[in-house]
Design a protein that fits this description.
44% of the residues lie in helices and 17% in strands. By secondary structure, the protein is an alpha+beta fold.
């Protein structure tokens, strides 16, 4: 279970997870407690701390983690610079060190580095029961409390890591559609739906000022559904599509 608060920190709790650890841990961080102090407060007040596994990471990169003696083995955690990894019910004790190595070696956006750590955990043996779910949560330091950079969760799926990767690709594709440099080829490479690829081609032409090409690409959509014209005009009025009135 994951909780995050922009500019404050994140909390991850598992193994007979106590949901209150998330909001309470963040409240303690926001009140000025260090991750170590916040974690101590939570576990001291919890009579079942021995079965909990929890990590608290503050916005300044400091972290604290707890793996209770009653967690189902193999279980453990490792803290590094600006991160903490933890796991339980693993096939072996190599899992969390491999997660740490993968996270440190990975490049790119934070969400991709987190997914690399999850991939490494599975490659090292993973949960001896198999795979079922996964999630990635990323917030920006200066965001509003309700804003997230990435908030993905996959439940009850035979290949949750592959599904998370697919959803990350789609997320990048939809973000790409807001950029003037958008291309249909890039959208296709990211695995976006063919309708999204076609619409991205229209955006690509519009941003390039190629109105005739945009009209040519839009024509089949208008034939299938005339209300695309309303959609184009509304997005144009909002500044998302250049030359919108000329396209329709």
């Amino acid at each position: 279970m994951l909780w995050a608060r922009p500019g404050i920190g994140v909390v991850a709790t598992q193994s007979y997870a106590e949901r209150s650890y998330g909001p309470l841990g963040l409240d303690l961080l926001e009140a000025g407690k260090t991750p170590e102090q916040a974690l101590a407060a939570l576990t001291t007040a919890d009579p079942e701390a021995f079965v909990r596994q929890v990590a608290i990471l503050a916005a300044d990169g400091t972290a604290a983690a707890h793996t209770g003696d009653g967690c189902i083995p193999d279980a453990g955690h490792q803290i590094g610079e600006d991160y903490s990894v933890q796991a339980n019910i693993m096939r072996n004790t190599d899992v969390w060190p491999r997660m740490a190595e993968a996270f440190e070696a990975a490049e790119g956006p934070l969400a991709r580095r987190l997914l690399a750590a999850l991939d490494a955990a599975e490659e090292a043996g993973g949960d001896w029961r198999g795979m079922q779910a996964g999630g990635i949560l990323v917030v920006s330091e200066d965001a509003k409390p309700w804003q997230t950079v990435i908030d993905l969760r996959v439940d009850d799926h035979p290949e949750p890591l592959n599904e998370l990767r697919r959803l990350l690709d789609l997320n990048e594709g939809y973000e790409l559609m807001d950029e003037p440099s958008v291309t249909a080829d890039a959208a296709r490479e990211l695995g976006m739906d063919e309708l999204d690829v076609r619409f991205t081609g229209i955006l690509e032409a519009a941003h390039a000022g190629d109105v005739e090409r945009g009209k040519e690409l839009l024509a089949p959509l208008l034939e299938e559904e005339p209300r695309w014209a309303i959609y184009i005009r509304v997005l144009g009025a909002r500044g998302y599509i250049p030359h919108a009135d000329e396209l329709v």
